[in-house]
Amino acid sequence: xxxxxxxxxxxxxxxxxxxxxxxxxxxxxxxxxxxxxxxxxxxxxxxxxxxxxxxxxxxxxxxxxxxxxxxxxxxxxxxxxxxxxxxxxxxxxxxxxxxxxxxxxxxxxxxxxxxxxxxxxxxxxxxxxxxxxxxxxxxxxxxxxxxxxxxxxxxxxxxxxxxxxxxxxxxxxxxxxxxxxxxxxxxxxxxxxxxxxxxxxxxxxxxxxxxxxxxxxxxxxxxxxxxxxxxxxxxxxxxxxxxxxxxxxxxxxxxxxxxxxxxxxxxxxxxxxxxxxxxxxxxxxxxxxxxxxxxxxxxxxxxxxxxxxxxxxxxxxxxxxxxxxxxxxxxxxxxxxxxxxxxxxxxxxxxxxxxxxxxxxxxxxxxxxxxxxxxxxxxxxxxxxxxxxxxxxx
Length: 394
What we know:
Blueprint: E1 7-10, H1 15-26, E2 31-35, H2 38-48, E3 54-58, H3 64-74, E4 78-81, H4 88-98, E5 101-104, H5 109-116, H6 119-125, E6 128-130, H7 139-148, E7 153-165, H8 176-184, E8 187-191, E9 194-198, E10 205-209, E11 213-219, H9 224-232, E12 239-245, H10 248-259, E13 268-270, E14 274-276, H11 278-286, E15 297-309, E16 312-322, H12 335-349, E17 357-359, H13 367-376, E18 380-383, E19 386-387
Parallel strand pairs: 1-2, 1-4, 2-3, 4-5, 5-6, 6-17, 7-12
Antiparallel strand pairs: 7-15, 8-9, 10-11, 11-12, 13-14, 15-16, 16-18, 18-19
């Protein structure tokens, strides 16, 4: 590992890690790809072994000392953390010790808050960390910032995602562990300036979104509830709610997983005393689940904002439409999480994002350049139904 890498990707064998890794390699960067165990490292080599500017390492992020050594040895500019969000703080700590900039795909509110509290330390060290660089959190946060700047006061922000597929068959979502937790764990919402808890499945409503149609959606816990209030409370923000929408065939399968106990986070004895969490076992099994031939997904990441400009009330609807792209069929609409992480990492590398500290995307990612890059990746951004990220082609 003598050569200098542009990026290190942790969790490169996962759904998002694969998207980020491939996009960076096809953009010509030198990338160190890391997997947790021998099996994962082997899977990564099989997928990316034909690329020239690539190397591989077996890294368990729970071993912070080893992780720190690998990051230092990589001489990389930035670490992209696509590992399970339970370890975001450990990874950030290793990045600080190794003096490496860092981005991740987001985590729960409690860990997000601790990450943002490191802002002062990161500023002193001349480093940057951005948490939540995917779809939601990620694209949604940047769309909120874009819209908020057009208003003098902001009262209510609702945001979320809704998706569907042409073949009504269960395909593994972004992270089965994260998804099952969102179904089960209380949703944190901001109501009249106070944080409250809601049972997700008690908040189901019918909503319609462009390209998706009518679907059930419900409130889930998401870090945006905290970060949006953190950054925009001075604009008068009183209400924040996050909604998740699933097609019926996926919703039913996830409910079955939960009802059968496979979403459980508590360790059980297995095969003569081995300890295993059912959700970890399920995650490994689903990694080998093949996508049906001809399967395509589409997703709508949406934001609704109510506020005032001058004395007039204003409503702004932002949407990002993500299709299944040719050549990326196996990724489905997960491109809207993997691509933004790659885009933001490259924006830091190129100096487009240059402020130092610890941030969520709404505080630091410039909307217009970011939307333009999404457009190049086949994702459309709309403001009140009008496309705002057309990309000129020669």
